[in-house]
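Instructor's aside before we start: the two examples that follow are unrelated to each other. I chose them only because their records fit on one page, so don't look for a connection. First example below.
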Amino acid sequence: MLNLVLFGPPGAGKGTQSQKLIERYKLIHLSTGDLLRAEIAAGTKLGLDAKRYMDCGTLVPDEVVIGMIENKIKSNPEAKGFIFDGFPRTVPQATALDKMCYDNKISISAMISLKVDVAELTKRIVERGKTSGRTDDQDPDLVGERIAEYNNKTAPVSDYYAKKSKAHYIDGMQSIEIVSNEIFKIVDSL
């Protein structure tokens, strides 16, 4: 089973690259952002709680995200693997993910990190906000808060996987095709 953590700040291209990985390897895409937005659209209590955090540009609490991811893993026992997109966002979430994987007799194959500079991230997110309908994409100040939140709380997850010799880094400033090909080389070598 192939299980990948696709890692990088908001706007790095994780969603785009996830689609390429799904097409090539037939993996199940677990995007915490998509799962949370689906809960919001459905008007569930989980969705309303999550919206309050997302509208402020802060992270949704661990227990909400962890429970949601574990439910998805358990509901897909025949999966060829998973792409974790936007999760884990903190070292405690990475530790919880390892425990969930162990409990479900799977493991993380690799973490692939997309590196993109702040100016490009901001440009990409604001541009995406013109069509995404996401309020957290449309305000450049809020985008800056999300990137700062990533740098302060999420970036340390990269070190967690590096210590496990599972971290791989790609220059996300390159074209979509070049980034995809570099990811495929890493995955094919696993």
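Example two begins here.
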Amino acid sequence: MPLTNWAGSHIYGARVIHAPETREQVQDIVAAAAQIRVLGSRHSFTDIADSAELVTLEQLPPDVVIDRGAMTVTCSGGLRYGELALELAREGLALANLASLPHIAVAGAVSTATHGSGDRNGNLATSVAALEIVLSDGTVVRAARGEPDFDGLVVGLGAVGALTRVTLDVEPGYQVRQRVFEGLEWRDLFEHFDAITSSGYSVSVFTRWGETVDQVWIKTRADLAGLASVPDYGLFGAVPSTQHRHPILGLDPVNCTPQLGIAGPWAERLPHFRMGFTPSSGAELQSEYIVRRSDAVAAIEAVLVIAAAMRPVIQVSEIRTIAADALWMSPQYGRDTVALHFTWSPDPVAVRRAMVEVERVLARFEARPHWGKLFLAGAGEIRPLYERHGDFVALLDRVDPRGAFRNDWLRRHVLGPDQL
């Protein structure tokens, strides 16, 4: 049967998929391939990972190594965050943040700057302390934070090579409480936006762009001063839910992480969905656009104006904050940001029409798209949004001079069609 992404919205065109069990096998496969990409957990909604040949790292040994002196953990790039979290929990350790889904692979998530939420939290790539990469000639390079090119290699969009090993910062384990508030008025979100997003360690605003905001999910760490208590009173007029909720109102929350202010381990609260369950049927498409924190309210208001064009195909939107970083191709490069995420119904034609409108109204805010989601902007529109774009292209020319890791997606959206 043809291999598809998790949502079934993309069929991979590769003629062969390699599943090496050692790094040496990865080296041989990559060096022999004319065109190749690394296939992660297939949670992208695009052809970002497609190529004539694909290699999956899922069969590599996890080989989780903890360095308590450096407070880091090193593991295979193919390991999923939920699996890594179990290993860390046994050692009383934790990561600073997680994405909505714990099912995603470490290498794929950091390569696309996938993120969670929180005013003080960077995207997942900001936790990377070091990388081991198999280049297109089969050689292995290692880069650590602070070394030349490191900030260009981390969010490498799958174009720098195969990330076989990743070293991440860790910290002592901690407990998190999660509470959901319902029925927030738009005017109260706009008036108290900073207060709402700073009311927890990780905050997500869910909406279907109707008369009110549907839900606000507040995740609070018990060990941080100033963020130690989950509010059990009204949140600027929104009321605390007395039931567990799914981000999409009306869906069964059985696969969601526990709420109602019940304390639990970090890895069982920071994601929205539990590791042991498929979060949904996958019958959806997704896109996301990231704007400056200072433009958040104006950008949300602009999207509200076109809400009628989205409602026929919108399942839910999530609004989150992410802290600035220095990674060249990160949407958070050089600026604190707010991400507007859209989960669409699986109707590509209608969704494209809605995306045209969303990208039109967000263009004046210089919105940067999430690399793993659907977006329409081409390389000519993307290039001015990234100050280090030229440095990144030059880096690719050095680490992959034969262009083995370049593909159609990269040419359309990042490099331009003239880049072989």
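The radius of gyration is 21 Å.
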